[in-house]
Specification:
By secondary structure, the chain is of the alpha+beta class. The chain is 42% helix and 18% strand.
Length: 197
């Protein structure tokens, strides 16, 4: 049996634009009706991660594709998501063709956004890893005041979990080890440069 030819998958956000512009689509197999193919798997699973305060104001946000290209569109999306999720007890929402998992902690709301066909368990593992890593870094005080005082560490944690929409790590202990290593390396570099002066 011949193996079907691999078809390059565009980066998230490019597929719809290419389809509208009349770009090429993967060819259908012999005897297969057009449009019935399942979507090819991709490493680009995360569209956005953001943390809002209890009033719905952004504290930390990273968007990994061009679904919301401008700051204005991002803020409007965050406001809509917050209004739909802030008063519910569930952990998952489907909104605007996206799957959103979220968690609240004292005065913070943490969100992980994926496409509508994304596995909720994968998104939830990212959310859990983010929360547990922040919980450890902030010494079990995952709240606005402590997050604002440790924002650089929060971005390091997020960068160790997700890079460009690709999930790198879902184990909070590994994330904390990597963040501590990066902080230690940075401190060594600063000491080295201060001794050279």
């Amino acid at each position: 049996m011949q193996r079907p030819e691999a078809w390059p998958r565009p980066h998230p956000g490019e597929g719809a634009a290419a389809a509208l512009a009349g770009g090429a689509a993967p060819p259908a197999r012999a005897g297969e009706p057009a449009g019935s193919r399942l979507q090819e798997p991709s490493l680009y699973t995360i569209k956005a991660v953001f943390i809002l305060d209890h009033d719905g104001h952004r504290l930390l946000a990273k968007y990994y594709d061009d679904t919301f290209p401008s700051m204005k569109e991002q803020m409007a999306f965050e406001k809509n998501v917050f209004s739909k999720t802030s008063r519910t007890d569930s952990e998952i929402a489907f909104f605007g063709g996206m799957t959103i998992v979220y968690k609240s902690s004292i005065d913070l709301f943490l969100y992980v956004v994926g496409s509508s066909h994304e596995n909720e368990l994968m998104l939830m593992s990212v959310l859990t890893c983010l929360f547990e890593s922040l919980n450890h870094m902030l010494r079990k005080n995952v709240e606005k005041r402590w997050l604002l005082e440790n924002m650089d560490g929060a971005f390091l944690v997020l960068d160790e979990i997700v890079d460009g929409g690709v999930i790198l790590e879902s184990d909070p202990q590994q994330v904390i080890q990597k963040v501590n290593f990066r902080v230690l390396q940075s401190a060594k570099e600063q000491i080295k440069w201060s001794l050279l002066k």
